[in-house]
Amino acid sequence: MRNRMATGEVPENQRFEYWLDMICSIYVQLECDQPQESALFGEIEFSRIGGLDLTELRANVPRVRRTPLHVSRSGEDYCLVQLQQAGKGVVCQDGRIAVVSPGDFVLYDCTRPYELMFDDEEHHVMVLRLPRSHLEQHVTGLEELTATTVSGDGAAGHLLLSMVSTLRKQADRLHPASAQGVSDAITQMIAAGLRSLPQANSRRPSSLHAYHLTRIKAYVKERLRDPGLSVASVAQAAGLSPDHLARLFRGEPLPLSRLIWQWRLEACHRDLVDPRLASRSVSDIAFSWGFNEAAHFSRSFKEQYGLTPREWRQQAVTVQNPA
Prior knowledge:
It comes from Hydrogenophaga aromaticivorans. Residues 214-315 form the HTH araC/xylS-type domain. By secondary structure, this protein is of the alpha+beta class. The chain folds into two domains: 3-201, Sandwich (Jelly Rolls), CATH 2.60.120.280; 207-320, Arc Repressor Mutant, subunit A (Orthogonal Bundle), CATH 1.10.10. It is built from twelve helices and eleven strands. The chain has helices at residues 15-26, 68-73, 132-136, 155-170, 176-195, 207-222, 231-238, 242-248, 256-271, 282-288, 294-305, 309-320; strands at 3-6, 31-32, 42-49, 52-59, 63-66, 78-86, 89-93, 96-100, 105-109, 114-118, 123-131. The strands form two sheets. Strands 1-3-4-11-6-9 form a six-stranded antiparallel sheet, with helices on both faces. Strands 2-5-10-7-8 form a five-stranded antiparallel sheet.
């Protein structure tokens, strides 16, 4: 079923808040700028088709942003695919800038910040929202394919636009039993367009993936003593969603939560045998590295090293000062 919402349905002094609430509920949490030289105008038609949402949007909002704060505060794990209908759009994400002309499409990932800009007084786009996991079944390395224009002159871009345009007109007539098949076909066509991009054929590991891992590990090391350090706090600081953080560490020996625990145990293991810290208690050392429960720390230490913290310390003293 197709639904329509428009700013003309509310008084002019309420339109900006109404529009912002509308796009946040339909897409993901966002912020946007008001037009400077004319009254705000916006209308959206939206339909649910199988596993994806299709929207058609006309508006004169010049800029839209999803900030690191929006990402860290929400668990929205979607990809958005923007098909430009009229006016030019600019999509910025992952250090790339894509200019999108009518007929082109572009991908952006809601698990990371992005910015959209429109240089015409009124723009017209169709937007597909689908779970990231659905698209990952058909194409890998999505983080290297965001903010990159897929030309409408290519076969995949042209076919996708044709399919979506037809679907928009026929959405109300689509039998529920057919909806998922149509949704799958559109997802596969999006993937085909993305696979046509030059970087999709690169065998190199994702530089963005490596960059995120490096900066996240550096952040954790700097704040290892902070008892409030957690997966959630790291995600917020990095401007990434917790789900994206989990995916980054999927190929690592330890998930992030376990890595924090492991590094803290290693730091305590080292400090307990440091002669300069001999006057400090076991609990004091444990708490200084972010642990907040002595008994739990002692059990974890023994599981890791085969000795309690006190036994490890005493063994080191015996070695350093033999009788």
